[in-house]
Design a protein that fits this description.
Structural class: mainly alpha
Distance between the termini: 28 Å
Shape: globular
Strand content: under 5%
Order of helices and strands: HHHHHHHHHHHHHHH
Largest sheet: none
Radius of gyration: 22 Å
Number of strands: 0
Number of helices: 15
Length: about 375
């Protein structure tokens, strides 16, 4: 739960959070200035939403069979409204609605989720290099997927067996990290990061051992491709669960915006303000692990999105997480839609792993951020 008021006669948690938000942002100006800033933020949000909508329509239309944006919008409207199409348009309609639309929507959801979770984890562990996979969740999901693919387990789930295995692996990894990092009921940021890194390396070793012992080279190739990220298996059947978890997770993370401001100041400062950092950190760990596990189960491991996007957004909107958590999901969604489009069109008919493209883009961007004069991680 986000906040619990302190006893009367002392500074309340809400007051403490407000102080943290002020200290995390730029010096407060006049009421008119703050109103203008909020207006600019809303305008930016509207512009990014429009850009995302255009990106989705364009990405759905592009591919080996090119469909114009107008025709794409017409087919989408026919699918949503139950309209009719001509008989000679059935093939194009199936390409637009059955094949590309779920893939592009899944890319947008995963991009939004990775960016938001990256924002939360960087504040939660107070580490500018943290991303959604620093807790070992991605590696645990990879072990689950590799195990299912190589052994043929969980066959009862049919085509969703790999996704179910990945999700179970993510849950096991989250539990192991939580149990190992806890000490006398406390969950310190440093212990959490070190435990997550150690668990991640351990899971990667297990995955390598399974691949090495796998008798089927085709299965091994598929596993290696999956662990670098892909939306090739996207379908309408996978979207409801992912949409529900990611959208609900984004809403909950936004409620934790001020709590993340306080956590980013350090546990001693938070405690002096009447704030319980351990309780909020445990709740956030469960939340980000659930979101990450669901995303990795349907897309594989995609690096650098959760690491770079939060820093890019902080440079534009500032450090307060209430602002960052509004903008970062939209920026991440737009970025991932175009990354997926590049992955399936640059070397068509073959498909590039998403992790290759995000790394090629993310590494130079991150180095540029580090070398940028006047920028320190945190947006100030």
């Amino acid at each position: 739960m986000p906040y619990t008021p302190a006893p009367s006669g002392s500074a309340s948690t809400a007051d403490a959070v407000e102080q943290a938000e002020v200290s995390a942002s730029r010096p407060a100006g006049s009421v008119r200035t703050r109103f203008a800033s909020r207006k600019v933020l809303l305008l930016s949000h509207a512009v990014l939403a429009a850009v995302l909508l255009v990106s989705v329509v364009v990405a759905i239309g592009l591919g080996p069979a090119v469909v114009t944006p107008g025709e794409t919008a017409r087919h989408l409207w026919a699918a949503l409204s139950g309209g009719c199409i001509d008989r000679d348009e059935v093939t194009t309609y199936q390409i637009v609605w059955q094949i590309r639309t779920p893939r592009v929507l899944l890319a947008a959801l995963v991009g939004a989720g990775l960016s938001a979770v990256g924002v939360a984890i960087q504040a939660m562990v107070r580490n500018a290099l943290a991303d959604p996979f620093v807790l070992g969740v991605s590696s645990g999901a990879s072990v689950g997927a590799v195990g299912v693919t190589v052994t043929g387990g969980l066959a009862v789930f049919g085509i969703y067996a790999v996704s179910v295995g990945a999700f179970l692996g993510a849950l096991v990894a989250s539990l192991m990290v939580y149990v190992s990092a806890s000490s006398r009921g406390a969950l310190s940021p440093l212990r959490l990061v070190l435990t997550g890194v150690a668990m991640s390396l351990g899971f990667q070793a297990v995955m390598s051992l399974i691949i090495y012992a796998a008798p089927d080279s085709e299965a091994t190739s598929m596993v290696l491709y999956w662990t670098m990220g892909s939306f090739g298996a996207a379908s309408w059947g996978a979207l409801p669960v992912v949409s529900a978890v990611v959208l609900a997770g984004l809403a909950l993370l936004h409620r934790y915006g001020r709590a993340l401001d306080v956590l980013s100041l350090g546990d001693e400062t938070a405690a002096s303000l009447g704030f319980a950092p351990d309780r909020h950190r445990k709740a956030l760990l469960v939340l980000v692990s659930l979101i990450t596990g669901v995303m990795v189960a349907v897309s594989g491991a995609i690096a650098f999105v959760g690491l770079v996007m939060p820093h890019v957004v902080r440079m534009v909107v500032g450090a307060p997480h209430a602002r960052v958590l509004v903008v970062a999901p939209l920026v991440g969604a737009i970025f991932m839609v175009w990354v997926d489009l590049a992955a399936r069109t640059l070397v068509a008919p073959r498909e590039l792993p998403l992790g290759v493209i995000t790394a090629l883009v993310g590494v130079p961007v991150f180095i540029t951020l580090m070398r940028r004069r006047g920028y320190t991680f945190g947006g100030r």
